[in-house]
Amino acid sequence: MSQVALPPLEVLLCAPRGFCAGVVRAIDAVEKALARYGAPVYVRHEIVHNKYVVESLKQKGAIFVSELHEVPDDGAPVIFSAHGVAKSVPGEAASRRLLAIDATCPLVTKVHREAEIHHRRGRHVILIGHAGHPEVVGTMGQLPEGAMTLVESLEDIARLAPANEANLAYVTQTTLSVDDTREIAEALTRRFPQIVAPHKEDICYATQNRQDAVKFMAPKCDVVIVVGSPNSSNSNRLREVAEHMGAQAYMVESAAELRPEWIAGKKRVGVTAGASAPEVLVNELIERLKALGAAKVQPLEGITESVVFTLPRELARR
Ligand code: SF4
Q1: Quick check: CB of 82 below 6 Å from ligand 1?
Q2: Could you say which of 101, 175, 195, 239 would form a disulfide bridge with 168 (CB–CB 3.0 to 4.6 Å)?
């Protein structure tokens, strides 16, 4: 029996994808600290949510810890991750005279400052975000206990019972779904018409651009593969956006996780990467797709990003 030849598999390569300016700065901070102070350099929590990045920094001499009590008092620096930390963390580092280097992304710091200003003006702050994510823990920790309330869903809004409905403001996590957050923000404003919104979107440019790019690419694909770690918020959102646009969508930490059955019989596979996923992992995924029959790789045109952040001030000095 003669077999019908299937059309060759084509790969669309999303743009922009992968590293954002905050991630580049945080990784640079660890590398620069290693070069300046020598190993070991302690890093509180994963510097960015990517196993490959964390493992490569470990090999260069970084030691990742969960809390500051694991850092010895021997003069070695300790770096705070791009996700930001509660105020108590630099406080504890200062009281122990640790050499602390803050690699919090400046766009997360912007949200911290907004929350502080609202608090100073007597407003109760609502944070739209995901419980337990380190960025949310850090942002909640900018204000005294009880001064901020976390909202994760539309259902949470119905449960809110603020002491003064006329004195509310909201801020958001930087890596949320643009569409879901708009819905939650609109519902908040409907329920509390006087609530103060951020002057400028808290969702960062990198999250917005990567989601927009997936919205453009996904309708052209049967399957979308996102390179990212399971604990990476923005990578998870990219997978969801692709799914909402009608594509099958999967997330992989490495090329080895790609299952051949996901692409069997498919015509077009879209590839993108979360803001903490390095390009080397994208290249490995492309090679595996080629080995599984992809005949053509078409890079898509996307917005050019020019955002660059300077290093934390402790490292920017000579
Ligand atoms: S995803 Fe956005 S907020 Fe997070 S590190 Fe990157 S630029 Fe900063």
Answers
A1: yes
A2: 195
pLDDT in tens, 31-56: 999 999 999 999 999 999 999 999 99
Give me ligand 1 centre to Cα 46, in Å: 14
Give φ, ψ of 111 to 5 degrees: -65, -40
Query: How does DSSP classify residue 122?
Result: T
pLDDT at 273 over 70: yes
Helix axes 106-120, 21-37, angle to 10 degrees: 110
- The vertex-154 CA angle with 153 and 156, nearest 5°, equals 70
Task: Tell me the three state secondary structure of residue 104.
Answer: coil
- 61 Cα to the center of ligand 1, angstroms: 24
Contact 134, 105 (CB under 8 A): no
Q: Is the pTM of this model over 0.90?
A: yes
Q: What letter does residue 277 receive in the DSSP assignment? A: -
Amino acid at 133: H
pLDDT (mean) for 252-269: 96
Q: Is 70 a catalytic residue?
A: no
Would the CB of 204 count as within 6 Å of ligand 1?
yes
Verify whether ligand 1 is closer than 6 Å to residue 238 (CB atom).
Answer: no
pLDDT score recorded for residue 8: 85
